[in-house]
Design goal:
Helices cover 39% and strands 20% of the residues. Strands 5-7-8-2-1-6 form a six-stranded mixed sheet, covered by helices on one side. Strands 3-4 form a two-stranded antiparallel sheet. Helix 3 crosses helix 4. The longest helix has 32 residues.
Length: 240
């Protein structure tokens, strides 16, 4: 009898041990803990941030270097439009004065004694003097009667120097002015930039601009001095 109960206890213990062993082999599959995923996400974010920082640093560096380079064609078109549009605004103001009976010799652009003859006075031409943006040029507008565009007689024109070749080309493409082999034509004559003060003087003719009322060229001599490559925009305000 004792042997029977001992056998039962032994069988029971053996079964429990077997159940315990089989349980350890059949543990349910558990997904990795959330903190493992969180660590992976943090690493991914750090990599993305590093890549963005590298891209930004490259863009800033290129932008700083871009000051010494020419600009893109699209940007050149925008700058060309800015220059042409303002020059035409000045022409309209000048023609407004002439329609009121102001003589071409009395038209004034600076230090005017009579505001009604001042292009940039509300009672005169009615517009404001707007210098070009620094991205276009560091130079200012020039109003002069020292050069000839049409008919062998000096014309009243507005000019703007210090342009890049790309902007100069964009201007000529926009207005149909001539180019030579895709670049601005060279004017070897002495370009006069003397400010207009009611009189016309000078004998320089923009021969290679083919009589275009608006355009841009490469001036190699300015006010008697060699200039190398210097790109100038011009627009005729009064054709004489």
């Amino acid at each position: 009898m004792f042997f029977f109960f001992s056998s039962l206890r032994g069988a029971s213990a053996t079964k429990q041990s077997s159940d315990s062993s089989s349980g350890s082999l059949c543990q349910p599959f558990r997904l990795p803990r959330d903190d493992v995923f969180e660590k992976g996400n943090v690493l991914f974010i750090i990599l993305i941030a590093a890549a963005l920082f590298a891209s930004l640093s490259y863009a800033v560096t290129q932008g700083m270097r871009g000051g010494t380079k020419d600009i893109s064609g699209e940007q050149a078109d925008l700058y060309a439009d800015e220059v042409i549009t303002y020059a035409k605004t000045v022409e309209q103001a000048v023609q407004r004065l002439i329609s009121r009976g102001v003589s071409e010799n009395d038209i004034c652009f600076a230090a005017c004694g009579d505001p009604t003859t001042d292009v940039f006075d509300p009672s005169g031409g009615g517009i404001s003097l707007q210098q070009p943006s620094a991205d276009v040029t560091a130079q200012s507008w020039v109003f002069t009667g020292g050069n000839i565009v049409f008919n062998g007689t000096n014309d009243l024109i507005v000019m703007l120097g210090g342009l890049t070749q790309s902007v100069c080309i964009a201007i000529n493409n926009a207005v149909g002015a001539p180019l030579t082999a895709g670049v601005p034509v060279e004017e070897g004559g002495n370009l006069v930039t003397t400010a207009y003060a009611g009189s016309f003087s000078g004998t320089t003719t923009l021969d290679n601009m083919a009589g275009s009322p608006t355009g841009c060229f490469n001036a190699t001599q300015i006010d008697g001095a060699a200039a190398g490559d210097s790109y100038y925009f011009y627009h005729v305000l009064i054709e004489r």
